Amino acid sequence: MESGQLLNLTTVAYFSAMVLFFAYIATKNKTVALIATLTALAGFLLQTTALGLRWYESYQILGSDGRAPLSNLYESVVFFAWSTVLIYLIIDWKYKQRTIGAFVMPIALFSMLWAQMSLNSSIDPLVPALQSNWLTYHVITCFLGYAGFAVAFGVSVMYLLKIGKEEKQQGGKPLGGILGMFPPTKVLDDLNYKAIMVGFPLLTLGIITGAAWANYAWGTYWSWDPKETWSLIVWFIYAAFIHARFTRGWVGRRAAWLSVFGFAATLFCYLGVNLVLSGLHSYGGA
Amino acid sequence: MAERQKDFTDRVWEFLCSLKLTIILLLLLAVTSIIGTVLQQNAPAAEYIQEYGQSNYELFKRLQFIDMYHSTWFIGILALFSVNLICCSIKNFPRAWRFFKEPTLVPGPGLFKNSANSTVFTVKEDRQQVAQRVTEFLKKEFAKPTMTEKDGQLCFFAQKGIYSRFGAYVTHVSILIIMAGAIIGNFWGYKAWVNIVEGTSISKVELRSGGEIDLGFTVRCDDFNVSYYPGSNRPKDYNSDLVIIQNGKEVLKKRIEVNDPLTYQGITFYQSSYGPAGTAVFKVRVTDNGSGDTMTVNAKQGQHINLPNGYSFAVTNFTDNDRNFGPAMQLHVNTPDGKHGSPFVVWQNFPEFDVKRGGTFSFALLGFDQPQFTGLQVAKDPGVNIVWAGCFLMVFGSLTAFFFSHKRLWVCLQDEGGKTKVQLAGNAHRNQPGFALAFEELQQKFESVVKNESQKKEG
Ligand code: HEM
């Protein structure tokens, strides 16, 4: 079995999990929800195996120059999907709000589809500047941070969909239908904050390890190149989010919008900078 | 008048302390930072003029967009941000400190009534006996309690995680520390570069901001090497053997490579580039295919070397890795009437190959010597360790602020004619749902221990 085939199976599993989560919302059947979560978990385990295998394959192809599968655009997109599912599974395990899966699994699924259909998956050796352990820590922490923000984004979208309807509904009657299946808006609002609380320290660590790497490689820990600057922009936005929670009025809808806005900046930092702007960070294999 | 002035300073102070200002500044920093990622920074004037026109360039210059991260207005926002941070901390810190310095040992009357996490029950034993059990219970299950007697009540107070009240302050101070480190690096450090030809030494480096600086010691490059990934032109690694010489003595030797620099007296040398220095010399064996005579010559690149019968040749080009075949040179042979022959390639790894070309002479490349220079980034940054210390505090502080909470428990015992009234309450300063669950469990254990139920069953 090759890692590529395992990743195909992963994509199938994520697709199935997504469909099952939709089915759960439509049928309200708890068993379906459990199967959906287990399918997502199976996909996650497959993907973990695939990542390990790809790491091993890199040693077969490159000999002693093998490396962690974290260094070109393809590998990073695959790792992003992995991180997102990881953070989702943790939240599922802790809070048992399964409908969230319907809004998070699509993010992982589309990442996998995009990586597999249009990105170059070859295992190439690293240029000298990228041969650093700091880089591995940098990528892992950044992407887990991004994943936290992705989950917060999914939850915020649910919140925004639900709150509008809920406010129109007179007399505090609980909502029926699909929106009625969503977790209570208070829970969604809280989960948004919790996911960002996970993402923010990880992004902080990501920026710091990136600075450490740059300092080792070039002798400057900060040079305001577009990628660095955008990571700082994202960091500012979520710092604003965290402080906005202390002042009244910045919970609920405004917090959800800030989270959506923050995730848009995150995506731009991750992809936009490479595809639109130029800088030191452009991925070799892209 | 004095009244109004006080009012005004109060308002300024409130403004500088406010979280509203924080949010505005954070979002303002986020938005303005975009400019420098879209508009190239510190490029030559001609590039802006070509792309955006003269008048736009003038505008950018006036708005300091060309080097916006060092512009007065951007630094101004950062400065206001720091002031905001300092004022806010000064204002709020005393409150956090009071939790530490003056813990609420005896709860006010409202606490047991209003707290979401509380319970009351009565035990048929006297206070002394109950107090013993309470102390032991808290010590074992939560934290060592402090006992206070007041108004006929015996109160116990125990707390965990008080330090998490300070996480936010540690985070905030860390930001100031990082900024301080950056400022120190800017004022007392420099960024420079230097190229050293193999076998030579330097003692001065070129500042990025212009000018030269004397290192106060000498750096010699003994050797430079590049290695390639097998079968490709991708460099795998390049490294330089550097020697630091101070007062004529070799004090430090290190092979530096990308991602592994050398530091001496606070000055760090980073491997960053390389290139050819001076002309290459080739050791070439020439065979006269007619007579079978051979000769070995050292040919400089571009130099014409005479061959028998009025012929001559010159090496015009070379690479140290031609596709998969290793080092190769390109050369041509001139006929006696001075006509240039067409160029051809000879590979070092295939010395017999050129015979097949069927020329008057055949060539083999025995070796070559291309002096290289190694390109080094040179940085002195006395603030960098301060920055790392700040980063460490930031991670440490934000983790404590986010993931730990200050949990407090109070127990009060009151004599009621031989019986004892027991009151228990607790709270946490964040993650209330989590604390509520833990409290429920604790409360059940507490009741059974304090009522001494397990022992009763035995007796
Ligand atoms: C980008 C810079 C900043 C970062 C990374 C940061 C980080 C943090 C963190 C991690 C917390 C703890 C949050 C929590 O307990 O949930 C916090 C709380 C807080 N921050 Fe900041 N902060 C920043 C800037 C500021 C500034 C400029 C102010 C000044 C007004 C400020 C005021 C506060 C206040 C009042 C709290 C609540 C403290 C408490 O728990 O009592 N922060 N900040």
Give a verbal description of the structure.
The complex is a heterodimer of chains A (286) and B (459). Chain A has 286 residues and is an all-alpha fold. Chain A has helices at 3-27, 30-62, 73-95, 101-118, 133-168, 177-181, 185-218, 226-244, 252-275. The longest helix of chain A is centred in the middle third of the chain and has 36 residues, at 133-168. Chain A is flat, with a radius of gyration of 20 Å. Chain B is an alpha+beta fold. Chain B has helices at residues 2-17, 19-38, 45-52, 54-62, 72-101, 109-114, 127-141, 167-188, 384-403, 432-450, 453-458; strands at residues 118-123, 146-150, 153-160, 190-197, 201-207, 212-228, 235-246, 249-257, 262-264, 267-276, 281-288, 294-300, 304-306, 312-319, 328-334, 344-347, 361-369, 372-380, 407-416, 419-428. In chain B, strands 8-7-6-5-4-18-10-9 form an 8-stranded antiparallel β-sheet. In chain B, strands 1-20-19-3-2 form a 5-stranded antiparallel β-sheet. In chain B, a hairpin with an 8-residue loop joins β14 (312-319) and β15 (328-334). Chain A binds chain B through residues 62, 65, 124-125, 127-129, 131-132, 197, 200-201, 204-205, 208, 211-212, 215-222, 224, 226, 229-230, 232-233, 236-237, 239-240, 243-244, 246-247, 250, 265, 273, 277, and chain B through 19-20, 22-23, 26-27, 29-30, 33-34, 36-38, 41, 69, 182, 191, 229, 232, 234-238, 257-261, 268, 270, 272, 377-379, 381, 384, 387-388, 391, 394-395, 398-399, 402-403. Bound molecules: protoporphyrin IX containing FE. Protoporphyrin IX containing FE sits between chains B (19, 22, 81, 84-85, 88, 92, 168, 171-172, 175, 398, 401-402) and A (239, 242-243, 246).
